Amino acid sequence: GESVGLHLPTLSVQEGDNSIINCAYSNSASDYFIWYKQESGKGPQFIIDIRSNMDKRQGQRVTVLLNKTVKHLSLQIAATQPGDSAVYFCAENSLSGYDKVIFGPGTSLSVIP
Amino acid sequence: DADVTQTPRNRITKTGKRIMLECSQTKGHDRMYWYRQDPGLGLRLIYYSFDVKDINKGEISDGYSVSRQAQAKFSLSLESAIPNQTALYFCATSDFARAQFFGPGTRLTVL
Predict the structure, then answer these.
(1) Which 3 state secondary structure label does DSSP give B48?
(2) Which of B42, B45, B97 sits opposite A95 (nearest CB)?
(3) Does residue A104 belong to the interface with chain B, where contact is any CB pair within 8 Å?
């Protein structure tokens, strides 16, 4: 069945280091992927997205990589800061059908000062 | 001002009571969604609406109903609240083929 999952439920990184958060998806028909950040007590916040016709997309301090061969995407955060501590969700969307988004369970990132 | 707002932000109620959660958006999006979030279960879709006249059930719609009063307003009702509806509720909006944008959430506790 369709599913989006994360390899690690928790991740701890030293402030200033780079963080890599991974995500696996199972629906080969998915063609749009989104990363969200959720801080404690807040709603999920859009970080970056990528379409299946791309392998890489960069934002401010963040990069998303998509490997369609192994159905894997990752979120890289450069020079991780304490404010980056949050739960990160990947989500997949199939743009055919009714545009349903499937969310992964999330990875909790903790930044060690 | 926030693009997606939810009221109330926190609510404590008793079993059997009727509760309405409201969502408003200023993003001009046609699509609106209601999710609930429970620890360890992630986000689950309750209802979604692609325009004012189009409302659809999500994966966990039992015990809930919705009303799309206008393009900018989408409310969620619990007709007779029960304790296992205690959760964090999020409203979200999107354009077609674009990411969803979430409100700040409503923390609902049913005693």
Answers:
(1) strand
(2) B97
(3) yes
Of all residues in chain B, the one with the smallest CA distance to A91 is B99
The residue type of A57 is R
DSSP letter at B111 equals -
Instruction: Output the CA angle B17-B19-B21, nearest 5 degrees.
Output: 170
Name the residue facing B99 among A34, A95, A104 (closest C-beta). A34
- In tens, the pLDDT along B30-60 reads 999 999 998 777 889 999 999 999 999 998 9
Specify the amino acid at residue B26.
Answer: T
Using CA atoms, how far apart are residues B58 and B55, in angstroms rounded to an integer? 10
> Does B43 sit within 8 Å of A44, measured CB to CB?
yes
What pLDDT does A25 receive? Answer: 87
CB A48 within 8 A of CB A54: no
